[in-house]
Structures are given as structure tokens and as C-alpha cells.
Amino acid sequence: MSDESPAPVADGLPEAVVDRQRGISIIWLIPLVAALVGGWLAYKTITESGPTITITFEDASGLEAGKTKIKYKSVTLGEVKKIELKTLKSVTVTAKIAKSGEKFMTDKTRFWIVRPRIGGNQISGLETLVSGAYISVDPRPGEKTLSFIGLEKPPGVLVDEQGAQFTLHAKELGSSFPGTPILHRGLKVGRVVDYKLAEDGDGVLIDIFIEAPYHKLVRKNSRFWQKSGIDVSYGTDGLEVNVASLSTLITGGIAFETPMTAGELGEPMKSGAVFQLFKNYNSIGESRYVRTVPYLLHFDGSMHGLKEGAPVEFRGIKIGSVTSIEVLANPVTLDLEIPVVIAMEPERLTGTGIPADMTPYDFAALMVERGMRAQLKTGNLLTGQLYVELDFHPDLPRETMVMTGRYPEIPTVPATIDRLKDNAVELLAEIRKVPFQRIGEELTETLAGAKKFANSPELLEVVHSMNTTLAEIHKLTREDGAVSRSVGSVEALACHLDDRVASLSASIDKTLGVIRDAMAIADPDSPAAVNLTTALDELSTAARSIRGLANYLEQHPEALLQGKKREER
Amino acid sequence: MNRATITAASVALLSCPSCHQLNRDRHLPAGQRQRCARCGTRLYIRKPNSLSRTWALTLTAFILYIPANLFPVMTVISYGDGKPDTILNGVIDLIEAGMYPIALLVFFASIVVPMVKLLSIGFLLVSIHRRSRWHPRQRTVLYRVTEYIGRWSMLDIFMIAILADLVKVGAIATVEPEIGAISFAGVVVITIMAARSFDPRLIWDAMEENP
Predict the structure, then answer these.
(1) What pLDDT, on the 0 to 100 scale, is given for residue A384?
(2) Which residues of A touch B (CB under 8 A)?
(3) Which candidate in A27, A49, A69 is best for mutational testing of the B interface (most B CBs within 10 A)?
(4) Could you tell me if A230 and A267 lie in one domain?
(5) Do B80 and A132 touch (CB under 8 A)?
(6) Is the ipTM of this complex over 0.90?
(7) What is the pLDDT of residues A299-324, one digit of tens each?
(8) Which of A168, A171, A356, B49 is deepest in the core (most CB within 10 A)?
(9) Are residues B84 and B152 in the same domain?
């Protein structure tokens, strides 16, 4: 440090202590601020980051790690971070969920991939054509979880939809697909959600969703049927074609109604209730009732004409059907018997005041004690088809329902047809006794006699002499004095005629007697005579109407083509 | 090192950093400043508080480097779909798109260079504190390189600024700057400031002290 010192004068003096600047330079505020900002950013990021979840899908087509979003109502809730193939059967998608979505991650929450879908009645997810697929979420409250199994197709009902879900049991799927409308009086009130084969393979289970407030219209006795779009029926009114709305025509639909009933109006049904789905509106009446209770019947006599499926009726109203007819050998009595099993549909009996704990069998036992009996009846005289009629016969001796074999047995009474048949056989025997041949012969004889008389020369002679007489009378009127002679001649002629007439009337008398005899043989009160009269009456009525028809056609031949015109008033 | 024993400081001279005119040091008390007699640039023997300033700025840059890389720098929305991208994501996207040279460029300019700068400044600071006599010449080269390449990292920020301003086609394409871009700009600017506040002459000061 050999340098020119600016002050070499004060050599012996000590140098002043240099006060070095202490403390922290203001420059250190910069890293402090940066640290604060960085710390705040880190805090925000950590508190705002939600959980990481895994979703397993069968197929991850359209998904892209780092790109695909998880959305609910178009709001992004998270993002796919990783797509892995954990097993050969499924794809595991790892996704980061936003903090706001954390509370929705429960075991009830469902995820599915939204892709463009084009169905018969709806096109959805079109926006994904441009933006790519995304994962949609249906959040539901439940237990917290972080791993999910994704759905392969969108769920039918989302959490925010109000309404009720029911299941329809159908024989065949028909045209029901997810999205198929449910109609009530032509108004769309819901849709088909899903369908699957029933577990026992007997039919199809169709899940439907009815939107609020229409779900309250579904009651216990509501009936659902498939609407095919076009209904063609041919009946007394002619050909009738009903075409439903165009959309129904294309996609089909399911309609329901709650019928007016004399019994209680059912309660509005809760979600999950099962209904039967009918093929069409007309088939509702045929098989509305699902529950059946079997009974056993034993009839005497021929079962000819009774078939499985034949109706069981109560005063003409179907309450069940015949399910089986077998021939069984009875080893004890060494007899063959034909037990008939019928399936009654207890749901057809509606009524209030029946104790809830009363089983259909208890009820039937009570009815049997009151005199209910089964009887075979002829449903169709032409084909001889039989059906089972249940009715009360209070005049018959009391019987009780007993358990024979597997099912309780309802006592029977002999068929009316058997009694009728016996009567008919007797009637036929009576008719056979009538000597139709003799009657015929005698009638022929009488007619021959009448013919002989008409052709007899005597009659010719009479006519001839009358001619002569008239000529003479003529002459007489001209010649005086001849009248008295003529009168005498007329008198003689009259006498002669008298004789002839007497003989003729005797002959007619005889014929009448013969006919009366014939009539007497056929009892006027006998069924044959009555039937004959009825038949003749009917014939004359028919003839009259044919005449009327003929007259009408004569006047209006165009009626053949156009039908009868309504009369103008 | 005999040739180097005479320095401007040792003979009470101040070199002007702008016009390189030698001025005599007036040895003023603290608080008063000296200027170049020729061009008026402020003169110091060494930049005041150089080390502590450089340390502070380097630390700031280090802190900002973390959000700059972890947070997205921009969001590109095209056809209604888009996501925020971090710098590294952008590099990966470029690689996936097959644009390797650009990916390499972005990777170097935006990730490697700021890191290298921060590390070299840090290394220089530590070496000065330890009065290291290790290869002072190469350390000076390191400083020069650091100062020179620093500004190139602003490329990213300029690009984002231009894109965000120009690409506003509504739903079809929109570019939004994100918080990472601000952090990144902070890193670049503060690193430049740190490099400038560093006085490379300090590297050589240790050589004058006799071991």
C-alpha cells in the first residue's frame, strides 16, 4: 500500500475505525417476496388438489392420458393422468380429481365414457366428435372410496332426475331399447333405462324410469303394454288401422294406464315395483294376473273337448285356466282317473274386508262350504269345446275342500252336457217311433184318390150336362113354358151333384182323419214339434228379411258396394 | 502471478466500466460517489454489495424456478378443448409431434439454460466466499457465458406474449398465459439482474492475496 497519502501530517494519530455497514441489505426483500409468493402458490396448489382415483373400464377407446376430462354437467371435475393395462381384460384409468369434486367420490358414484352414440331414437355425445371422448360422472352420496368400476354404457337415470324407477316383466323384449319412451295418454312421461334377461331365463326384465310428477300415476293396478305404432284390427266395424305418433312408429314405445276400478285405487307405487308388460292393449285382459293358485278337480265322464288352457269361469268371467289333464292309474282301486289341475288367479278377486292373513286356499274352502262346485260346460256347441265353470249350488249336500294329492280338491257336479245328452237320446228314440213311412203311404193314397176324382168321367159328364142345361135354360128364356121344365131338370141336376159332393166330402174327411192320426202320434208339446214350429217361424222370418233385402237391393243396387245408407231424417 | 500483482485498485485507480478511462481513486467516505471524468459513469473499485445482491437475486431466481416449472405457462384452447401446459409438457408434446429440434431448443432455452445460469452464478459466489484460487480464468469465461446467454431465455416469454395477444379466435383457438409464465419471466429477469450485479473482478481479488 505504498501510496501518496492525502494527509501525511497526522502520522502519529490512530486511524478512525471504519464503520462498516451492518444489517441486511434491502435487496434481500426480493427473495423474501419471491419465497412468499412461491409459498402461497404451493399452499394454494396443495389445498386445491383433490384425490387421485382409479377407474376400471373394459375399453378405454377415446381416452387420452393428460387430456381426457372428467365432467359433470359439462363442468370439469378432473383429468385423466394415466391409462394402464393392469389385466388383459380391463383398463385402469388413473385420474386427478379437483378439490371441489372430492366429496362426490363415493362408492355409489358411477363413471362412464361419453362417446358419440347413435341409436334408433337418440343421438348423443355428438360434441365428443370434435372435442374427443370424456368421462362423465354421476355423483351420488355414499361411502368414500377412491377406486371405481366404470360403466360401459351411460346409466339410464342420473342423480339429479326426479321420478321413480320400475321394472317391467315381459315375455319378449319387443322394440324396447334404452331411451324408448313411456307414454301415458300419448304423453311421454319416462323412458326405458335398461333391459336384461330374467335370471330364470323366463322373460325379459325392462327397467323403466318415470319422471316426476308422473311417477305418482303408477299405481298397483296400473297396466303397461307395448305400443307397436300400428294397430290393425278387423272386426264387426270393418278394418281399423290405428297409427300412433310418428316417433312411436319408428321407435316403438310402452304405454301405461291405471284403469277405473270398483275396488280400491291402488297406492302410488314406490321405486322398484315390478309390473307385467303386455304384448298389446288387447292382451291385457287375457293375462293380467301373474299369481296363480292350483286346485285339483275330478270329473266323471268324458273329457273330450277339454284342453289345457281352457278357461275356468265364474258366471262367465274368467278366473283361471286349466293347466294340466292327465290320466293316472290308481293302484289301490285299480282304476284310471283323470285329474284336472286348474290354476286360479286370486288377484282377479278384488274386494275390501278380506282379512290379510287369509290365504286363497282358506278363501276357497269357505266358498266350497257355501256350495261352490266345479262343472264342465260346453263352450262351443259346434266344436264341443269344454270349459270349467265354478258356481254355487246351495241345494247340493255340503262338502268340504280336501287335500288329495298335491293340491286341494274342489268338488264337482256332473256336466250339464251329459244330462242334455241323455235327454236328447230319449227324444231321438221317441221320434224314431213315429211311423213316417205309413204316414207317407197314406198321404200318397189320398192324393191318388183326389187325382182319380178330378179325372173321373162322371165329372166330365156333370160338366157336359151343365152345359146342356145352360143351353136349355137359354132356349127356355126364349120359349115360354119351358122354364118350369128347366127348373125340374135343374133340380134333378142338383140332386145328382149332391150325391157327388157327399162322396167327395167323405173322401176328404177320411184324408183329414189320417192326417190327424199322424199329428196325434207326434205330440204337439214334444220338443220336436216345438223345434219344428220355431224353425218354421225362423224360416218365415228369414224369408221376410230376404224379401226385404231383395226389395231394398232392387231399389238400391249400389248398396252392395257402398253399404246401406243411413236414412235421412 | 507476478505480472498480475499490479491492479488498478492497488495503485488507487478506477477503471471506467463504460469508456475504460482510468481515474484516480479519491478514497471518498461512504455515501459519496465518484464518476468517470470522461463519460460520467459511476465508478467503484468493486460493485457495492455485489455479493449480497447477487446472492439475494440468485435465491429469488431459485425460488421462482420451482413454480415456473411446476405451474402451467399457458393454456391453448382449440375447438373448446384445451388444457394448461407446463414447460415440460410442452416439450413432451413437441416430442410426440415429432418436432425434435424444436423440442430440444425449448428444452435447452427454457429448462437447462436458466438452471445452468443459476448454478454457475451460485458456483461463482461460493468460490469467491471460499477465496478460491482455482482456474480464475475459466471462472471468468463461465461468467461471460452466463451473462451472454441469459437474455435468450426470454424467448419463451416473448412467444407466449405474442401468442396470447394474437391467437384470440374465440372457441376455435385461444391462448391464455398462466401463472408459470410470470414465474418464468421472473426467473429470467432476476437471473439477468443477478449476473449483472455480480462483479467478476472479485474472482481475481483472491489471486492478489498471498497464500
Answers:
(1) 72
(2) 3, 6, 21, 25, 27-28, 30-31, 33-35, 37-38, 41-42, 45, 66-67, 79, 130-132
(3) A27
(4) yes
(5) no
(6) no
(7) 877 777 788 888 888 888 888 888 88
(8) A168
(9) yes
Q: Which of B155, B78, B74, B141 is nearest to B111 (CA)?
A: B155
In terms of residue numbers, what domain contains A548?
A: 528-559
Structural domain for B184, as ranges: 49-208
B139 and B169 co-located in one domain:
yes
The region that residue A403 occupies, defined by phi over 0 for left and psi between -120 and 50 for alpha, beta otherwise, is beta
In chain A, what residues touch B81 (CB-CB under 8 Å)? 67, 130-132
pLDDT less than 70: residues of chain A: 1-11, 17-24, 119-122, 229, 231, 233-237, 244-251, 261-266, 285-291, 347-356, 381, 416-419, 476, 479-487, 518-529, 565-569
Size of interface A-B (CB pairs under 8 A): 61
From the CA of A27, how many Å to the nearest CA of chain B? 6
Q: Is A248 helix (H, G, I), strand (E, B) or coil?
A: helix
Closest to A250 measured CA to CA, from A170, A172, A177: A177
- B125 & B31 share domain: no
- Judged on CB neighbours under 10 Å (0-12, 13-18, 19+), B197 is buried
Chain A residues within 8 A of B89 when measuring between CB atoms: 66
Confidence of residue B17 (pLDDT cuts 50, 70, 90): confident
Q: In which residue are the cell numbers 184318390 written?
A: A449
Query: How many C-beta atoms surround the C-beta of residue A193 within 10 A?
Result: 20
3-state class of A364 per DSSP?
helix
The distance from CA B127 to its chain's CA centroid, rounded to whole angstroms, is: 18
Mutate: best of B6, B57, B60, B88, partner A, most A CBs <10 A: B60
Structure confidence at residue A177 (pLDDT)? 77
Q: What letter would DSSP give residue A539?
A: H
Cα A547 vs. chain centroid, distance in angstroms?
43
Prediction pTM value: 0.46
In this structure, what is the dihedral angle of CA atoms A149, A155, A157, A159, given to the nearest 10 degrees? 30
